[in-house]
Amino acid sequence: MATDPSRSYDGSAPLGQGGYGSVFLGEFEGRKAAVKRVEVFRIGNDNEEKALKQLDHPNIVKLFYSEKDNNFKYFYLELCDASLDQVFLRPDNPKKYKGPPLPRYTDVFRQLALGLEHIHSKNLIHRDIKPENVLISVRSNDQVNDITIKWADFGLSKSVNERGTCTLSGVKGTKNWFAPELLKLLLDGRKTIEARGSVKSDVFSLGLVFGYLLLDGKHLYGSNEFQIKKNIIKKQMPMDVLEKLKECCGDEILGLMLKDDPNERITSTNIVLGLKLMEDKLSSKVRELIQKSSPDLIERIKHFSRLGFDVNAKDEYGRNALHHLCKIYKTQKIILEIVYYQFD
């Protein structure tokens, strides 16, 4: 690759590595960049570059520049701070995300849904939706952290027709995050040649990512690949998982995203609309909760707060959650809880 002072990367220290290439810290025109380096023989087409050039959205990682030499193709991309899976690594793992807390989960969902809606609006299918391809971008201004969630890695993306479908030359991606129609194709490879891909497969995988976030880094359908594949194909979600989803009002929208038949799944546009209804239900649920003074009120409110409800929601007498906390605790403990809500 020709030397150019406007761009560079440190090939000795990879930020990450996948099946198709490595990512390094670099620079492009004076700003830090993530440089994805892919061996030329692994690139069967220019789908990733074409997709990124079509996409312009705050919830999608930006491509600054690309070039290639005899051995590699290089993508100079917007540098982010971590991927979603790093949030849930053990505290002693050096790769664990140690930045500021993520936005409320409903806001993370909304950002992911808006990004996917934009991808589909450009007649593209991502085909590799998973936590590792969800990036976290932190920008700090005047002691305020602006956190944006972005889709990345469009190496498997494809163009689709006006119905949102495309021909498949094979089933690619990461098995634990496959929609059931793709898992069934894997079980019967003979049908792969006739198969068609659909944007609705992205919708199912997005539902899995939503669930992963709600369950603090656990998969909706199990703890290992065998269990996950079996439960997805048999449409069996563990009962404790279903209860958790009901508690946070996520069962309805996820139910529509995780339909076994892709034709019955909602679109990415309807996910955006559905999330607004989910937020309204959360607020309503909180109003009911704060009318019940109980010893576990603090933990319940913390749980709903993390999901994204309005802590200032009031009951019919004009009292919010903190009023009820004051009623239950007449000690210094309430001061600590007020500090929690003020600065969390």
From TrEMBL:
List the record's Gene Ontology CC terms alphabetically. IRE1-TRAF2-ASK1 complex
Any GO BP: intrinsic apoptotic signaling pathway in response to endoplasmic reticulum stress
Q: Which residues form the Protein kinase domain?
A: 9-278
Endpoints of the signal sequence = none
Q: Which residues bind ATP?
A: 36
Mention one GO molecular function.
unfolded protein binding
Recorded hits in Gene3D superfamilies, A to Z, give: Phosphorylase Kinase, domain 1, Transferase(Phosphotransferase) domain 1
Transport: present as a keyword of the record? Answer: no
The record's section on SUPFAM superfamilies has:
Protein kinase-like (PK-like) (SSF56112)
Its keywords, alphabetically, are: ATP-binding, Kinase, Nucleotide-binding, Serine/threonine-protein kinase, Transferase
| Record InterPro entries | IRE1/2-like, Kinase-like_dom_sf, Prot_kinase_dom, Protein_kinase_ATP_BS, Ser/Thr_kinase_AS
Concerning its family, UniProt says: Belongs to the protein kinase superfamily.
| Name this protein carries in UniProt | Protein kinase domain-containing protein
**Annotated source species:** Daphnia magna
